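Please predict the structure of the following assembly.
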Amino acid sequence: MVDGEGAHGKLLVRTLLDAPNAVVLPLVDCAWRPTILFWLGHLQLPKPMEITKVALVGMGTVGTGVARLLLDHGDRTGRHAGRVLWLEQVVVQDVDKPRDIDLPQGVLSNDLRRITEDPYIEVVALLIGGLEPARTIMLQLLESGKDVVTANKALLAEHGPELFDRARELGRSIAFEAAVCGGIPIIANISQCFSANQITSIRGILNGTSNFIVSQMEEQDADYHEALRQAQKLGYAEADPTMDVDGSDAAQKLAILAHLAYGSRTHWSEIPRVGIDHLEKADLLYARDLGYRIKLVAVAQLTAGGLEMHVDPTLVKKGRPLAEVRANYNAVSVVGDAVGPIFYHGQGAGQMPTASAVVADMIDMAVGRMEITFRTLELWSQRESRFQVLDHDRVLSRFYLRFTVEDRPSVLAQIAGILGRHEVSIASVLQREPEHEGDVVVPLVIMTHQAPEGATRRAMEEIARLDSVRPGCVRMRVIN
Amino acid sequence: MVDGEGAHGKLLVRTLLDAPNAVVLPLVDCAWRPTILFWLGHLQLPKPMEITKVALVGMGTVGTGVARLLLDHGDRTGRHAGRVLWLEQVVVQDVDKPRDIDLPQGVLSNDLRRITEDPYIEVVALLIGGLEPARTIMLQLLESGKDVVTANKALLAEHGPELFDRARELGRSIAFEAAVCGGIPIIANISQCFSANQITSIRGILNGTSNFIVSQMEEQDADYHEALRQAQKLGYAEADPTMDVDGSDAAQKLAILAHLAYGSRTHWSEIPRVGIDHLEKADLLYARDLGYRIKLVAVAQLTAGGLEMHVDPTLVKKGRPLAEVRANYNAVSVVGDAVGPIFYHGQGAGQMPTASAVVADMIDMAVGRMEITFRTLELWSQRESRFQVLDHDRVLSRFYLRFTVEDRPSVLAQIAGILGRHEVSIASVLQREPEHEGDVVVPLVIMTHQAPEGATRRAMEEIARLDSVRPGCVRMRVIN
């Protein structure tokens, strides 16, 4: 029986696949790769199992989830990777902060050198948010010879080229499955499983906070601020939710996916984006009446004119998979020219889904798969982008337009005339009688046929200047 | 400029990423791995690119798709794998058969030795169906030192242990992404992306032919035989569709997934299965009225009592992702204890989706990732199964029951009495008035609460013996 102590003891016992009378024999077979031979007394064959020493930087929600998987379920990595991931160090800013996990003695510290100066630690999961000190720590980890797994999409979206170039120079790897869509393994799927394809379209609901808020607004008849408070109460939104609700978070993820699928080098901040923070309940109701739901959709697709990219609240036809994504779920629809359309749906964030992605990357690092992937993909290298970005004004879409107009006969003719002059063709019009007698303004909803972004924007600007049109025109993309 | 000839010339030019003034310099840097250095004159750095020689056995629908991807889109593998897959040999039974692809001269033959005796060929895709000669050829390929990619699920389901053991003995690898769900990369996802999880549930629509037939029956109001003829006309069903429509094909795929997720060693033929070949239109209509659709669902999930596995026509609540899978699509819902529920939807068969999966495996072989995966997973090894299979009689489900009964008052009481004695609790009853005056029998539909498989089966047998009940009782599983 293993005479382990605390969580590590548990790890060992577990690793023996519950062998009741196993004996542990610690050995070191070379300087860099200590091996523990587990002699499974009750099985016919002795089963030698190597360990890979790993470490964590940061012990927030995701870090705690990763530590739980490593400590409580070491048997899984043994079974799926033929080796044990041994949690050697956890470095945090404040060691005295109360945590809801028992770490083995001696594992926790606030000294990064306990990782960088330990040559036996091979893989480190960097699980702190923000750009600094995350960037500096990642460089220190790479320079001390560690492979790094991260869930920090902002860091990659901002400093990807610098960090990946440095990793390549040093012969190290970076993995980041957890950075996009949490539990949905979209990074591995796009970069490995569809290697034989040219991806032609990616459309995704990449921000769970926004999707939760929009779903609440639609299903609970809440307004934006009520729904946001609910999201914060349930832990689906940060205290400062700006990056989530203004489309920036989705744009950062889209920039990463577009880099994988198209070699795009577009910085996330250059991706045209609109958030859900100005979404009005009225539009959710009109959309519903028209047979659509509004979702924050991130799009990166190839067109004849180039690569089209944007993040927008979008009307999606009911019954289409993206329209039916509820609560804080994420979903991605990928089209490859050989494989056709593939749709993914799952938890895009949260402690254990994200930890699942981090540990899968750590296993890929430990067994050597990630090194191959990292080397062959040459991500964020100096290689040129293969597709030109389509001028956003030339992006073709159907549009939903809503105006608040004076209730008199010539107004629709004026608006239709302006749209016509800009060659924006009307597919359908929804104008109701005034709700209350004496109302002088009424809502006017127009669905267009496919038209260029620029033409509809210019038409809207012209319409907004009409005396009979009140401020607050709404324009949203429509996908079937 | 490359002075290539035919398809291979195209391959080379493409591989240069369309470099206009590139020069090709063929070299051999060691006996086993010929290298071609592509000096990209217009880029700053010379870009050496290795090639991996590959071959195909079989040139049917999928083989032709694979050859197209290799010959016409060599640039993709160059970009995604850092190397070119060079199609060196294609071995078929009949070289004179007309084919809708132009192969480079000298590639096609009917002599397997042109592959087995060529030490430069590293990876072979075995793309013929059936058990023999596929099994013998796979053994010959492994013994001649080739790694083998296959789409032949029957071969794996039947001879997996023998083939995988032999591959391990010889230090070779077998890959089979295309064998289950065609374009959906479910094998890689379960065996790599969810390594940190214990999978707790797999539910899938794994047979596109059956799903097409059932969708046609539901949407076009066709009966089974009309829908089958339509499927055959569109090429979605074989001339002999038995294995597809009787649930065997889905059971073979389920056995493979259950092996990956649970280490199950259950042979596919031991999985309880019912096909769609006796499905009646009436039940589709009743299901619709109750808010369900009928789908052929394959299930492998962990319960307190053990591993539950079966393939059945099943009522799935409308709006749930599995219920909305139409036409010949496949879908899989996987639950991992860390990652939560993940849903996949895509083309489960067809030339290019299947070819996409085959080439992705060939790339994984060529770069060395597959060797690691194969070695660490120890598939179909002598390792024991970790979960006991749950006795099928103890499987708990809700059930849909339909009887044709005489239209008199005591019948429902009798039936309810028998169900009660077997402790099968009724959730709802649907009994309509006779459609035509003078009808002496009426349909009676009962939805049960959760009850054991065995108890409902025994209750049904007892009910079927009642004088007031006509032959042809129907029992189907229900999932919400």
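DSSP finds 16 helices and 18 strands in chain A. Residues 153-170 of chain A form the longest helix (18 residues).
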